[in-house]
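TICKET: design request
STATUS: open
ATTACHED STRUCTURE:
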């Protein structure tokens, strides 16, 4: 039996459990704010412009698709982009330079996916400054760095900050552990851009009224499933009469399921915790074909079954936004 995703339901509403934990949230906020300030005072600056992508929530806002989309957009403009990632959930803590020989378990599922999609030079390490310098030693012509999931990594100085908000918005608005926030909503006043990935109109309207930070509304779309075994692509309309199971080991599995339902599909589901290391045994009792996120598929590439399908998620960025980011990079470079 699969382990269900662990995000507390009370994080979405100001219910009694959330209110009881609110004093701990206040304490967390004070300690976290002080720690982040101390780290920022000692921040190290990489020699190339540095873009940070992150969020103030715990997971599930689309940071990985956003990192891929921005990297590809800058690559299309002939910029040499390098990626820095922590590599959460990988089986080593050593500084690792990405290569085609490494697996998702060695790199982390999100860095692995980003590398497969972009082929950008990538270093994976908890210290992003050391990772960046290691990449520069091998690739001296790098134009800029993109740091995945690093909004709270204040040890590294940044030139551009991008914060994502997703379908769940800010939940009940409380900091951990009473709510899903790592930092208060006011933190978004200091970032360069807010990218709204599926956030509802009420959340966006509230932000527009509360702050002057540019808000860019984005939309991620599912692409037709691709077989992990044959690489065949089977259009969604072919799945409308095919029984299948959708699985997801991401922060908010329901987002994936809702996107599949929007395609007119009916299916059973099985959810796992975020970054869960899937094994063949986990799926052995599922007798139907399985559709999964690309992030989950990265850990199933060598499974010995022929009915596993990856569902790509594609995010595109408005060209005027890419123009502005390139202008900022050029200004920082000079």
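STATUS: resolved
RESOLUTION: sequence designed for all positions
ATTACHED SEQUENCE:
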């Amino acid at each position: 039996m699969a382990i269900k995703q662990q995000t507390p339901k009370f994080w979405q509403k100001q219910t009694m459990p959330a209110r009881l934990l609110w004093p701990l949230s206040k304490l967390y906020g004070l300690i976290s704010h002080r720690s982040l300030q101390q780290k920022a005072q000692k921040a190290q600056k990489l020699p190339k412009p540095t873009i940070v992508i992150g969020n103030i929530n715990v997971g599930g806002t689309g940071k990985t698709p956003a990192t891929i989309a921005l990297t590809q957009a800058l690559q299309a403009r002939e910029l040499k982009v390098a990626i820095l990632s922590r590599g959460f959930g990988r089986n080593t803590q050593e500084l690792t330079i990405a290569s085609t020989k490494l697996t998702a378990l060695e790199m982390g599922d999100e860095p692995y996916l980003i590398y497969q999609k972009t082929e950008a030079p990538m270093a994976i390490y908890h210290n992003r400054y050391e990772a960046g310098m290691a990449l520069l030693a091998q690739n001296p012509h790098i134009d800029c760095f993109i740091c995945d999931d690093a909004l709270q990594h204040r040890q590294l100085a940044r030139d551009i900050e991008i914060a994502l908000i997703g379908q769940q918005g800010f939940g009940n608005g409380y900091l951990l552990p009473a709510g899903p926030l790592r930092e208060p909503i006011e933190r978004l006043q200091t970032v360069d851009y807010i990218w709204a990935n599926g956030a509802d109109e009420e959340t966006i309207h509230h932000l527009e009224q509360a702050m002057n930070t540019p808000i860019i509304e984005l939309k991620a779309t599912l692409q037709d499933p691709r077989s992990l075994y044959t690489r065949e692509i089977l259009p969604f309309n072919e799945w409308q009469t095919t029984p299948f199971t959708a699985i997801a080991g991401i922060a908010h599995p329901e987002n994936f399921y809702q996107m599949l339902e929007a395609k007119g599909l009916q299916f059973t589901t099985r959810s796992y915790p975020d970054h869960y290391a899937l094994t063949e045994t986990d799926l052995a009792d599922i007798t139907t074909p399985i559709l999964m996120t690309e992030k989950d598929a990265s850990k199933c590439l060598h499974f010995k079954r022929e009915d596993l399908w990856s569902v790509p998620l594609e995010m595109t960025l408005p060209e005027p936004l890419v123009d502005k980011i390139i202008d900022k990079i050029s200004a920082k470079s000079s």
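CLOSING REMARK: DSSP finds ten helices and 15 strands in the chain. The two ends are 56 Å apart (CA to CA).
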